[in-house]
Amino acid sequence: MHDYPPPGAFPVATVSDAMDRFGVADGIRPLWPGAVLSGPAFTVWTRPGDNKGLHTAFETIRRGEVLVVNGGGDVTRALIGELVVQKAKALEIGGIVLDGAARDVVELAGLGVPVFARAVTPAGPWKTGPYRINGPIAVGGVPVGPGDWVIGDDDGVAVVPAGEVDDVIAGTRRLLEGETERRAANQRLVPRG
After folding, report:
1. Spatial distance between the Cα atoms of 14 and 17, rounded to a whole number of angstroms
2. In the chain, where are the structural domains located?
3. Is the Cα dihedral 106, 140, 51, 136 positive or negative?
């Protein structure tokens, strides 16, 4: 098990740069500005528009894990809303990433659990299954396995395979040092003419 950096410690864009610009989940955005997450993935694969698997996941998910859900990219039914996120907050999970939709955006922001999703809709979910828990999935075109590092900020979500976490953290630190030097050089620029 890794010591994952705390939420907000590394920009998603720089983490992606450290992975040769791979690993970014397409179309998955934070539901409010300033939402950040970082932690190991706990995965759910569910039938589009159905959240029975999410409720089952809450029976075994651990503090700090990020619930990552392949909902088939469906945007017609919200997989989560205020009541589900209240449960997530009580369990102190690291956040929720949905390749699907959410609802109750104002209430979710007030709860403070970082939620990233493909869309927002007021339409509620089905609760019949089927689903798969803690196996390999894909979210926004990116493979995600249990324990992979999931990181999110205002730019979106990136996924780092568990076996690459230490190398990507080291590479991200090097890139951030270089960016600091470039910022300093930019401050010294003088207009011509």
Report:
1. 5
2. 26-96+105-187
3. negative
The pTM (predicted TM-score) of the whole model is: 0.95
DSSP state of 6: P
Per residue, the 3-state secondary structure of 75-142, as one string, reads CCCEEECHHHHHHHHHCCCCEEEEECEECCHHHHHHHCCCEEECEECCCCCECCCCEEECCCEEECCE
CATH code assigned to 26-96+105-187 = 3.50.30.40
CA atoms of 96 and 69, how far apart (whole Å) = 8
Q: What is the pLDDT of residues 23-48, one digit of tens each?
A: 999 999 999 999 999 999 999 999 99
Give the pair of three-digit tokens for residue 110. Answer: 């007030």
What tokens were used for 24?
Answer: 């970014």
List, for residues 7-22, the tens digit of each pLDDT value. 999 999 999 999 999 9
Output the CA–CA distances (angstroms, integers) from residue 118 to 36, 75, 86, 94, 147, in the order listed: 16, 7, 20, 18, 22
> Which position has the token pair 């919200």?
78
